[in-house]
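[audit] Reproducing an earlier prediction to check determinism. Same input, same settings, fresh worker. If the tokens differ from the archived copy the diff job will pick it up downstream; this log only records the rerun itself.
[audit] input (342 residues):
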Amino acid sequence: LYTPRDLRRGEVASGRGPRIRVEDDGVETWRRDMLVMLPRLPYRNAALFAWCGLKLFARYLDAHGKPGFVEAHGALNGGVAAWAIGRRWGIPYMLTEHSTAFAQGRLRWWERDLVRRVIAGAQHCVAVSPQLAVLLSQQYLGSRWEYLPNPLGAAFVEDADARRRDPAAPFVFVCVARLSPEKGHAGLIKAFAAAFAGEPTVRLRLIGGGPMRSELQRLCAAQGIAGQVEFAGVLASEQVRDELAAANAFVLASDVETFGVAVIEALACGCPVLVTASGGPEHLVDGGNGVVIPPRDPTVLRNALIRMRHEADRYDRAAIRASALRLYGPEAFARGFAENLG
């Protein structure tokens, strides 16, 4: 759904309207982009999303026939569309939730109402982390949530060329995350500066785009580390994989998360990780693959960066990768998905 404001900002993809396209992993995707002229009213986006979903699903039925079930990726608004499809055609659906909006308390009253309806109609409810499952069961009393972690993408399952790290080369921390406030980049930059300012042998590479890029670049200059921090922008999955395989360590200093796809991608590349206990990443990390620290604590973060700088080479990168593939590879996800369907 797009608004006139999105058009003015140039945030609308070309070729609007109903169409079929192929995603990165080869999944056929039925998509309709709609320009919305109505003011933002309660239930507006959900109603339009459901209407479009019903139209597209009718085309899917003509092409492929009736499926046994629908998987809704998030209650808002994939779950709303699945709920509408269930009412129209009697097809059961499974809800998979991953949104940080629940932990951040960002849902409006009508969105909470919609989530309750979607949960009530779902045959199965699945959260992407144990922490999120507990939170949702507390916020929506009577709901029952199972845990199923996100899977690794194909680029991270494939064997990549192993890179030999030159001991004389700079030590590189890599962070893969959208440049937005909840990801904690500002705190990370300040902690990095406190730990390594003036040490050209230690670098920080930030991969991802977002609204805070200019602000963070100014912060790097103010902290005296502009020459040590690189903004790589948005990269393709294969490029991210190569960056992680070459990095000495991965760091994610988020204030709030529900899982941490970038964390398991780093682990699949054999990269030791430093993450915050922000609602998801902490269940992915143990003593053999990285370090977990509290969020929003600059002193602890600075000390953890220094420790990782000196201990990263002690981790068994091959063992880290093997464990990640076993836990988050496609076979593991398929088994978990089948178990949840019963």
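[audit] rerun output stored. Observation attached for the diff report: The mean pLDDT is 92.
[audit] end
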